[in-house]
Design goal:
Strand order of the largest sheet: 3-2-1-4-6-5
Helix content: 25-40%
Largest sheet: 6 strands, mixed
Strand content: 15-25%
Number of domains: 3
Amino acid sequence: MDFDLLPEFQRNLEIMALSKSEKVLIAVSGGPDSMALLHLFSRWNPKMLGVFHLNHGFRDSATAEANFVRDYVKKKGISVEIVNYDVERYLITSGESKQQGARKIRYELLLNYAKKHGFNRIALGHHGDDQAETVLMRIVRGSGLLGISGIPMERGLFIRPLLSIYKSEIEQYCKAFRVPYVEDESNFEPIYLRNKIRQELLPTLVREYNPEIKTQLIQLAKLARADELELQRQTEEICHEYVSKMGEQVLFPRSVFSKLSTAMQRRVLRALIYRYQGHLLRIGFSHIEEWRRQLYENTTFHLSLPQVVVSANQKLIYVGESPSVKLDRTVLSVPGEISLGNMLIKSEILSADELEPQPKDSEDFDMDLLSLPLFVRSRKKGDRFSSFGLGGSKKVKDLLIDEKIPIDQRDSLPLVCDQMGIIWIPSVRRSSFAPISSKTVSVVRLSFFK
């Protein structure tokens, strides 16, 4: 049969490396897409299947649809779970739209059930028309590359084996193999953007502009996804090398940021927010551009974005509120190290004759000129600091102002001291105490890690 979808279905399973030893939970609403999906899986491997149906109670026909799914699946000898959930009540408290809220609840319930009962994959009935509609909808909304890459065939436990198959082909399959299904009346209501695109915009484009527009949109999604994955990989490499943390704060060096392309700057800033809070909800293009503008125009700033605060000084970009942690006086052995939350300060003794170049965030001191033991503490009122190479001394408060250290971060900075005074403020400045000279025999190297 030309309309037998099993060969294409099997090719997609091979792409996703799905084996017959894996348990698959199929989300079945009762519509033609999910019923065809169930039928195809039962032909491929009926022994490792389970079915999940959510009765959200939106329509009068919801209970009848749940009963339809239960009766059909039981005749197939497949286990079925029917869950009744008051989605309307959830929407009242969450404030989400009907479609958004129902989708969120459905995915959460599917994941919880799959993990509890040992399913390896969760199969969804999205098809090629869904992909074309999604890409077009996101173009209308002004999405970037990630948005127009559309629906992924595989993400986490979720798989979509029908994504390369059109709706009309699915309906032909159901007719040819006598697969029963029910229609969701809400699919025909033009109140949702997706339905308006499905019923009005996409047919107009097919009729008047390009009969192959669906194929072109699906191809666009494939190209965009491949490019997006490569750019994500590059972004992750940059973040892995240069991102650090201080408490819960995420830090990134401005010197590295300034050398990135505009496109990669945008991606890195989004990645920093994601690393900090695990999502990018409400963060749009305008927010990222305002952040970039601040970085170009201001040495130091404090900017409130939706659900997150970002800031910067001369050296670093910060995401999140600075941890206001006062450091108790703690002895730093030489050699030795101390851990201060997500910070580490390490001391080593090196020979001046075999001294290697200083790594980043390290300083060297003449051991014979230090008054040991060393210790680390937070700043105190009246602290003064003798800057290396500048002569004289100044208040630590004034130094931090001059160095554009954000006010909410100053009390959390570690100060390394010997018995005579402050010798180093990591990532800020070293003092004039114990400089290396031709007479130096032993060197104390201090290193700061975040």
